[in-house]
């Protein structure tokens, strides 16, 4: 099983500042990496897929980078609606054996 | 628009089974796989398995092998996830989520979630 590790567990950021979230895979997942945002009481929402492609309707302040085992999600200027938990997920295997990272909570500083 | 609508909350006793449904609309049900993901309160996301609604083929995470069964009824565009031998640790919100049937892809649409509470 591919283990996904996210850091930090919690990130305290002021509105308008940049947030940088990390995700590491225990083995290469190529660019088969997605990021999701989850707010309390809601289902996760797809933000980024293919490591760097924004999903439909996702603002340009969200960007993803990386390949292989190291990935980054950057939120360039945090808005109030961006405070949430973010998960990375690999989808590199067929048949699917999908795994998520443990999540990073982005909170207001 | 694509929608996945799940059945309502359930309360079950330890040892019982639960069956959660996921009704798809706004797309061709048999053209996309349905996955199930669960989340215990305050915890992260855990993938349980997938099903191809066209063929009925399934694949389960090792942790749930022998306890989970994923099925579908194509006539009503509905997928089901049944989990047996419930224990307290199975208390969680269960989500269905869609992926492409033509290769591994991320979850692009999610159901609203179904809370399953296991308590004596």
Structure description:
The complex is a heterodimer of chains A (109) and B (120). Chain A is mainly β and 109 residues long. In chain A, 0% of the residues lie in helices and 49% in strands. Chain A has no helices and eleven strands. In chain A, strands 2, 4, 5, 6, 9, 10 and 11 form a seven-stranded mixed beta sheet that branches. Chain A starts with a strand and ends with a strand. Chain B contains no helices and eleven strands. By secondary structure, chain B is mainly beta. In chain B, the strands form two sheets. In chain B, strands 2, 4, 5, 6, 9, 10 and 11 form a seven-stranded mixed beta sheet that branches. A four-stranded antiparallel beta sheet of chain B has the order 1-3-8-7, with no helix packed on it. Chain B has strands spanning 3-6, 10-12, 18-25, 32-39, 46-51, 58-60, 68-73, 78-83, 92-100, 109-110, 114-118. In chain B, β9 (92-100) and β10 (109-110) form a beta hairpin. Chain B is globular, with a radius of gyration of 14 Å.
In sequence order, what are the helices and strands of chain A, one letter per element?
EEEEEEEEEEE
Find the biggest chain interface.
A-B, 26 and 23 residues
Distance between the termini of chain B: 40 Å
What class do helices, strands and sheet pairing of chain A give? mainly beta
Helix count of chain B, per DSSP?
Answer: 0
Main beta sheet of chain A: 7 strands, mixed
Strand content of chain A: over 45%
Count of strand segments of chain B? 11
- Quaternary organisation: heterodimer
Strand residue content of chain B = over 45%
Structure class of chain B:
mainly beta
Share in helix of chain B: under 10%
Which ranges of chain A are low-confidence, i.e. pLDDT below 50, for 5 or more consecutive residues? none
Number of helical regions of chain A? 0
Mean pLDDT of chain A: 96
- The 3D shape of chain B can be described as globular
